[in-house]
Fold:
Amino acid sequence: MLWCALRFPWSPTEADVPGVAAIEHATHWALAITPRVTRQDEAVLMEVQACLRLWGGLQALQERVAQQAPRLGVQSLAWAPNALAALALARAGQVDGLVAPLPRLLDALPLHTLSALQPHADTLAQMGCRCLGDVRALPRGGLGRRFEAGLLQALDQAYDQRPQAHAWAKPAERFEARLELPWRVEHSAGLMDGARHLLWQLSAWLAARQEGVTAITLHWAHDAMRGREVGEGGELSVRTAEPTRQTEHLARLLAEHLAHVTLAAPVGELRLLATDTQPLSGASASLLPDERQPAEPLPQLLERLSARLGPDRVLRPHPRADHRPEAMCEWRPATGPAPRGDWPAAGPQPAFLLPAPLKLVVRAHRPQYLGELQLLLGPQRVEGGWWDRDDAQDTHRHVARDYWLAWSAQAGLLWVFQTRPQAGDASPAWFLHGLFA
Amino acid sequence: MFSRSDVHPQAAVDALPGGAGQWAAVWRASQLGQVAQRVWPSGWPALDAALPGGGWPGHGLTEWLCSAPGAVEWRLLAPLLPSLAAPLALVAPPQTPHPLGWRVAGWDPRHLLWVQAQSPAERLWATEQLLRANATGVVVAWLPEVRAAQLRRLQVLAAAHEGPVLVCRPVSAALTSSPAPLRLRLKPLPDWGIEVDLLKRKGPPLTQALRLTALPDALAAVLPARLRPGARPLPSGVDHVVVRPAVSLVAH
Structure:
């Protein structure tokens, strides 16, 4: 068995909200490393023997923990063969409980390092005990009769002479993290530093639950000095196309959305909620390298483009069964579901369409566009759309057109149409509708 | 062994075996250059023969200078599409793309991605993001107002992009220098032709512009014999090839 103790300067029994939140977050962080995590007094304890190989060996794991512990708010940490010994060493300020035989290390520790000894510390001190070794040297029978049974049991457990049972910690059901900003922030871009910290906590929680997030909500509260007309605060919801728990991905997405936000007043506090989560298993590595390795997966790229430009400006075509060229396809946001269905059968079609048909000048019954057009092929009659009504304006988008392929020396191959003469029209009009590219 | 005076310099250069074995790294300016990166065959044999490496280069910019935006780009690009595994991204195309016109055998236009960037800064930003991500097969960006310094930045970023990056610019840009290693001037010709003039490539300058006959498959299926490529040159005058619709037939 190999245990690591992360000791915090706060005790969860004190009604200290930031302390409780920090220990809660450290538990999530530890649960992302190993499923066997327990909380005891002011410390989070994790058993890592079974997952050493996953993290690349003891030394790599120790480096990882030592590097990230200050960010969690850890005061001291220790490694030892059992939980109580690790906690005792952490309280005494020693880090490595693996360098020497455990009894030799523990014997030298002061009495307050074991929780079970703390109520009796005065009595034991009057008996001349200064360290754990002194208590252990006392006759066991007398010790057992004079003090409560828990004392002897804790002592044996710390020295690995009796097994320990633990209540394993579980990640919280829902994620909500709060952060008071160290200073008032007036611009939305300045919220990113705080939000990044919260996102880091979120990713630890998600990793502990083996889940990915598809929607997060960031709330901000304005400080008390705000104007009267300004509300309590604001919020921003961000959705992702695929479940994710990468801090970088979420931070980039949030930054793009925050860039559009104008703060009504300085902000003093942030709150992050995971609104929607889905199970997400880790990616398995492949023995052979992939042929193609995008630096950033396509969904993430599309999200980022959509966040900056707006979702209705990053588009993918969805087929529609219609005969009118402008209705054959519907451009929908690329972050939405993938296009389905078949393309309608049609004759030759141009590669580009004009947003609206451009009326052409007609001279001597011949359409002009950058010079006179030569009509090559046609007509292809397209008629339909009587069902496509616009009730608000009481019009319909019925079209009756004869399409022609035309050649212009300047503009290349064009797709023009002639409206079918209606009653009352003197002559049919010509329109440019597409470019054959 | 040769003494120095024995060998004429030109003969010494000629004696170098070109493009084989240990001399593969030696490139003579009179030869067409080789590229180390993967190339994407353009689908035009005549064009492939003139392009260094035999196709559109990946990991670098290719500049297309078009006399009219949207006039020839798709017809030139179409034969490449079936070989693509990843989407084709269009940044700020001059007109609305019409997916049915982009339909090629073996390629589904649902892989089109239309990025509607408007201002020059947005166009550059979107192109930059696409190049950085390397998640798309081909990026075609219409950048009419791009400056040389910005193109240089794109060229550096394009080195990380596996597929071809095509930058469409107006034909007036041919007068200015550009960091793109490959520059083509494109012009539509009558009789389904595209004139391709290689302004810049790794190799000797092309003496004569290439003429490609680009007839979309969908059109080829319905075209009458008199309009097929090479049937007869289209008259350059004002005469119409087909009978123009008689206005007198209109029923009033």
